[in-house]
Amino acid sequence: MFAPSCVGLRRLARPVVSSAYASSLPRTAARAPSLWASRPFSALVAPLRAGGRQSSSSTTTSPFLAWLAALGFGAGSLLFFKGYVSCEEPAERKDLPVYTREEVSKHTTPETRIWVTYKDGVYDITEFVEMHPGGANKIMLAAGRSIDPFWALYQQHNNDNVRGILQEFLIGYLSPEEAHVAADENDPFAREPERHPALNVGTLKPFNAEPPPELLTDALHTPNPLFFTRNHLPVPHVDPKDYRLHITADGTPLSVTLTLDDLRAFEEVTIDATLQCGGNRRAEMSRAKDVRGLSWGVAAISNATWTGVRLRDVLRARGVDVDGPAFQHVQFEGFDRDATASYGASIPWSKAVDPNGDVLLVYKMNGEPLPLDHGFPLRVLVPGTVGARSVKWLSKVILSNEESPSHWQRKDYKTFSPSVDWSNVDWATSAAIQEMPVQSAICNLKDGASVPASDGTVEVKGYAWSGGGKGVSRVDVSADGGATWETAELHTSPQPYNRQWGWTLWRADLPVPSHGKHMDVVVRAQDSACNTQPERVEGIWNLAGCATTRGTACAFMWSGRSSDAACFVGAGRKGLTMRLRSARASRHCSTVVSLERCGIYLAV
Question: How does pLDDT run across 409-447, given as a tens digit for each residue?
Fold first, then answer.
């Protein structure tokens, strides 16, 4: 049995949800686009974020009612006043009937009642369908069937409150011989590849992780096991022998199917290129003002060599006029999918067929077959562009005059004015991010770390990169908060002008000052178009935390002796702080910088 307080709280929330949530909150709020690991997440937390919001019917839901609605449905519904109500696993009710799966399968419409199963329970969710935060169409995919596979895919359902709400609709149980299904059959993440233990994991399902920042500067090319991973859905398994790439063109009879051997017949090309998640450094922006999405640090970025064939060559060989304005966009779809759609994205036609754009269909990464997490057996690589457009596990290429209809193209990976928040965002008013802005980061210093300070200097290391093929022309490092600057040493691969797709690693030995006890270290990068980084986040904050960057700074406390000493980074120690600044300038999309503060002290 549930604890009385738990049942009472749910019964309090249900009428509120039925009236206030279902009728008063706008559907755009209830179905808000996701910038989290899976699409329904923000839909589930929309009422929690929205507070009081005006609906299309001009009625207003109070913040209190919205909080109660969120309590019933949100993935963040663990909060209520100062805590949450934990519900015990209910005891089996002997008074309820037993059903077979065949009987359940006959209940798929409001007329027959809408039933689902979860584990060994049978539930009549007819009254709940229209209130489902993700939309009735989503929950109806499970009508007459088990919801276990859907909850395995959308992990935000797996908490006591959501399970408790479902328990209110319990009408019976599955017959014992049908109740137990092997867990792997219902878990779309059961066949995920093995990952390197050094990765800092953001989410497990789907898997998202970044390497420790200090490892990024060890090599110009990030080792495959340490390359950051951004998955939106379960990793698909595609047999190379059965692989087929389908190419079509809207409004034309073009229809091409290619095997991997067909693709390898084209001229092979290898390039250096950096991939960066659109949300890299989101954690920094959220310090200025809350944003949604995975809380990436500075390491959702990596660099590799990529080997494959030019998309331009493949299209031209199939009769496509790649030298004319035949289409406006090229759409890509992957084999990774959820219950409704595959992952998809698109890029401008001009980028896709530009002979200097280097858009490749790649099958090797750092000289080895693509790892499973990075698109095996084939992915598209769109260098100089946000990583979200380099679709992994590529299944389709569609030439079109429309950009991809995918959620991740139309309602994700966009930036807005700081004045736009989740209550007034209109996704159609912002272009999808393509090229990324210039940025730099310090990788070997962080809060709580100790760094050597021998020979009167402190070594500072990091990376710098700019999108659109703009190489990094200079990295400046300051030891006094930007009053004076020194030029860092740069290390990068030789690349043609405006095709400098790979990053630049930099280092500098900063002298410890002979006077005073404070050392404020700042870094900034400049690209080949003279773009550099801004110093404040407030003017370029955006609600999704995309296209974020920060220049970093460290304040050192110096006691006059360097030999065999170490600097300790610790926020607020002895009341002294260090400013970590990160900034960047934007050419094609909004950019973000946040101020990070920590204190670095020299122990003697």
Answer: 998 888 788 888 888 989 899 888 899 999 998 888 765
Tens of pLDDT, residues 60-103: 334 433 433 443 433 333 333 333 334 455 677 888 999 999 99
Give the burial string for 433-456 (b: 16+ CB within 10 Å, else e): bbbbbbbbbbbbbbeeebbebeee
Beta strand pairing call for 301-310 and 360-365: antiparallel
Categorise residue 479: left if φ over 0, alpha if ψ from -120 to 50, beta otherwise: alpha
Catalytic residues: 132, 157, 230, 277, 413
How many Å apart are CA 81 and CA 42, to the nearest integer?
21
Helix (H, G, I), strand (E, B) or coil at 247: strand
In angstroms, the CA 221 to CA 5 distance is 56
- Locate 126 and state its tokens: 């007819």
- CA distance linking residue 463 with residue 551, whole number of Å: 11
Contact 288, 348 (CB under 8 A): no
Within its chain, how far is the Cα of 149 from the centroid? 22
Name the DSSP class of 319.
T
113: β partners:
109
Q: CA 33, CA 217: separation in Å to the nearest integer?
A: 35
- What is the H or E stretch that residue 362 is in? strand 360-365
Q: Which residues contact 70 (CB under 8 A, 6 or more apart)?
A: 45, 47, 48, 76, 77
